[in-house]
UniProtKB/TrEMBL annotation:
This is Carbon starvation protein A. Its main location: membrane. Residues 58-622 form the CstA N-terminal domain. Pfam families: CstA. It is a multi-pass membrane protein. The chain crosses the membrane at residues 33-53, 59-77, 118-137, 143-162, 183-208, 214-234, 246-266, 281-301, 313-330, 350-371, 391-411, 492-510, 542-561, 573-597, 675-696. The keyword Cell membrane applies. Keywords: Cell membrane, Membrane, Transmembrane, Transmembrane helix, Transport. Belongs to the peptide transporter carbon starvation (CstA) (TC 2.A.114) family. InterPro entries: CstA, CstA_N. It is found in: Cell membrane. One of its GO terms (cellular component) is plasma membrane.
């Protein structure tokens, strides 16, 4: 039974049903008991992960520890942030309601938006980062992925989304400029945009590597585009508001595309038409990024991301079930010698700071702040949904990272390093790779060349030696776990399914990110004033096309550079991506801290300030090492000097560069990467120092004005969570009756 005195219905118009439900009912004893059990199970799982060793450690403990921590964090810590900092008001119109134009601003059902937001933020990081970080051992990675998400990553995503929603969907760089003044704003605008370009290039590079020479992947991922267009038209014109209905149709078509991809790949014409090299795939991704940026958001971007969420969440959930049932034994140590000495084959560098840089999006990601201040605030219906979308979406991504880590640490360590060490180390053949990894001093039985070849044969590949970048390792681990769950004989199917899954997973981040970068560029150009001020309107079509061409041209050129990089683009660009991504998070947390202090909430400023200080310590240390280290495997300039000296000595090949042209390419690439490392670090230091100065001023003044927009009254209703409460269901029914009586075309959110 609902207690009327504990549930308030908020009306903004006497002729309309309520626009908000304020539910103050306390937690029931049954719910309290459930949370107590969840907390106890999580505590036991954490103890087993932290202290158990050997064959007693299996992947199920990681799943239980993660899920239990997420549930407690979302229910209590996120609720604390909501009550003390965000203080949402559902009687206040969001930007999507105020500025609805059917292109960039469009009130979107919270289920579709949650799917879009999660799909947009969940890219290469939570899949690739934990797989690479597994070389340092499972314990530090597990702690950072789970705890880091709860206290850092989710906090950033939630609070940036709140800030942008209160500012008509302003981009991160623009909010830094408006809240921190000219100097900090200029550094923020430039830094955010340039970092965004690097991030998009690396994300696109991972997709390119996954889809190249994979006709199954190219066909299946490509089919998601016409399916998304159909879904967009279906929801917009054919059956407005029928989210559940179109979801069933879309998922059925997606599954058909996956199955059809396997059939197409088995035919001669399919092999000829869809087996594409890296450069061709890169150009196709560049073209897709442009279209996703300029087409109306309801037509392609939102439905495609929502569609891909079913596959993302479904696959990860299936993998979690597989781990719980199969309980794969953890093959990796809790802490490896590579984590202690920093000389790992997958990537070089000490645990602090490079473990945190490598894991990146699985715990804290600056890229998420761009989505939270890009497309999502322009689509959200109610402020009360921000916790579910911002904080909850990041929790789901963190779980993806944990599942990626479990797959990597469940693989035989000799096999793991034979896949993740560069070809220059393994030699590229089963014989040389076996000799190399057997000399690393790993625990367990040495591996043979025959076993390495058998592993490749089992997944239908000619070779898996030096398949770097993390994606093939994740696919192999997933194939092993799902193969145990469903029986033998399907390992090759699950491997290629996982490769396609990863490409689809990451591509949704590229399309949303390109659109966000477009918003950032138009905001920046609009600040110049005069005729250029028109660029501030994100829906100005000519400006959108011009900005999209510039954005796609910039990240596309870096993508092509990475595709042809003699050192292996992912190996040289991923550390820069990780550092840039974390530096971007520092910028986001800086402006969040400034706004919290400006609003007079000094008592709660520690919520964003603590992760900010940690992030600055990690990223600036990593930047220092990448710039000044004299170890070529770590320092960009040390690597640069080594190749310059080789060229000067007349060498025609050096290291992994086998031609003079390849040596020139390495010299060029390391110059670009080294310069960018310096620029990124300087810009972030400027932003952090300005943020400190503004916070001190605000503290002394007892608060300062912010650029938050004035209240605008809301005239629509939407539930707060994915599942409606009984009170929300009653109000949704009232809106359905009201719309039917008045002939309103718009279907009430959540009514279907």
């Amino acid at each position: 039974m609902r207690s009327p005195e504990l549930v308030d219905l908020v009306r903004t118009d006497p002729d309309q049903p309520p626009v908000a439900v304020i539910d103050r009912r306390p937690m029931t004893p049954g719910k309290k008991a459930v949370f107590a059990v969840v907390g106890l199970v999580a505590a036991v799982a954490w103890a087993l992960v932290a202290f158990a060793r050997g064959e007693t450690v299996n992947g199920a403990y990681f799943v239980l520890a993660a899920v239990g921590t997420y549930v407690i964090g979302y229910r209590f810590y996120a609720r604390l942030i909501e009550y003390k900092v965000v203080r949402p008001r559902d009687d206040r119109a969001t930007p999507s309601e105020q500025l609805e134009n059917g292109r960039d601003f469009a009130p979107t059902d919270r289920r579709v938006l949650f799917g879009h937001h999660f799909a947009a933020i969940a890219g290469a990081g939570p899949l690739v980062g934990p797989v690479l970080a597994a070389q340092m051992g499972y314990l530090p990675s597990t702690i950072w992925i789970i705890v880091g998400a709860v206290v850092a990553g989710c906090v950033q995503d939630y609070l940036v989304l709140w800030m942008s929603t209160r500012r008509r969907g302003r981009s991160l760089g623009q909010m830094i400029r408006e809240e921190m003044g000219t100097v900090g704003g200029a550094a923020g605008l430039i830094g955010v945009f340039v970092i965004m370009i690097i991030i998009l290039a690396v994300l696109a590079l991972v997709v390119t590597n996954a889809l190249a020479e994979s006709p199954w992947g190219v066909f299946s991922v490509g089919m998601t585009i016409p399916i998304a267009l159909f879904m967009g038209v279906y929801l917009r014109y054919l059956r407005p508001g029928r989210v559940a209905e179109v979801s069933v149709v879309g998922v059925a078509l997606l599954l058909l595309a996956i199955v059809a991809g396997g059939w197409v790949a088995s035919t001669d014409w399919g092999q000829d038409a869809f087996t594409l090299d890296k450069v061709t795939v890169a150009w196709l991704i560049i073209g897709y990024g442009f279209l996703a940026s300029v087409l109306p958001v309801w037509l392609l971007l939102a439905p495609r991301d929502y569609l891909s969420t079913f596959m993302k969440v479904g696959t990860i959930a299936l993998l979690a079930v597989g781990v719980l049932i199969a309980r794969p034994v953890v093959e990796a140590p809790a802490l490896s010698s590579f984590g202690i000495h920093g000389d790992g084959p997958a990537f070089a560098g000490s645990m602090f700071p490079f473990l945190f840089i490598t894991i990146a999006c699985g715990a804290l990601s600056g890229f998420h702040a761009l989505i939270s201040s890009g497309t999502t605030p322009k689509l959200v219906e109610k402020e009360g949904q921000l916790r579910m979308i911002g904080y909850g979406g990041m929790l789901v991504e963190s779980f993806v990272a944990i599942m990626a880590l479990v797959t990597a640490i469940s693989i035989d360590q000799h096999l793991y390093f034979s896949m993740n060490a560069a070809a220059g180390l393994t030699g590229g053949t089963p014989e040389t790779a076996a000799a190399y990894v057997n000399g690393l001093g790993l625990s367990g039985t040495p591996i043979t060349a025959a076993e390495l070849q058998a592993a490749a044969d089992s997944v239908g590949e000619a070779s898996i030696i030096s398949r770097t970048g993390g994606a093939p390792t994740l696919a192999l681990g997933m194939a092993g776990i799902l193969g145990k769950l469903f029986g033998g004989g399907l390992t090759a199917f699950w491997y290629h399914f996982a490769i396609m899954f990863e490409a689809l997973f990451i591509l949704t981040t590229v399309d949303a990110g390109t659109r966000v970068a477009r918003f950032m560029l138009t905001d920046t150009v609009g600040n110049l004033g005069g005729p250029l001020k028109k660029f501030r309107d994100p829906s100005w079509r000519l400006g959108a096309w011009i900005a999209s061409v510039v954005v796609v041209g910039l990240w596309g050129s870096i993508l092509l550079m990475g595709v042809t990089d003699p050192l292996g683009g992912i190996n040289t660009l991923f550390p820069l991506f990780g550092i840039a991504n974390q530096l971007l998070a520092a910028m986001a947390l800086s402006v969040v801290t400034v706004v919290v202090v400006k609003k007079g909430l000094v008592r709660w400023a520690w919520i964003p300030a603590v992760p900010l200080l940690w992030d600055l310590a990690v990223t600036l240390t990593a930047s220092w090492q990448k710039i000044f280290s004299d170890v070529p495997a770590i320092g960009y300039w040390a690597q640069h000097r080594a190749f310059v000296d080789a060229k000067a000595s007349g060498a025609t090949e050096f290291g992994t560069a086998k031609t003079p042209e390849a040596i020139d390419a390495v010299i060029r690439n390391t110059t670009i990467q080294g310069v960018l490392s310096i620029v990124f670090a300087l810009l972030v230091v400027i932003v952090a120092l300005v943020a400190l100065w503004v916070c001190v001023k605000a503290f002394r003044a007892g608060g300062l004005p912010t650029t938050e927009e004035p209240d605008v009254t809301s005239h629509r209703f939407a539930p707060r969570s994915l599942v409606m409460t009984d009170a929300e269901r009653e109000v949704a029914a009232q809106w359905a009756a009201h719309d039917a009586a008045t002939g309103a075309v718009r279907a009430p959110a959540g009514a279907h």
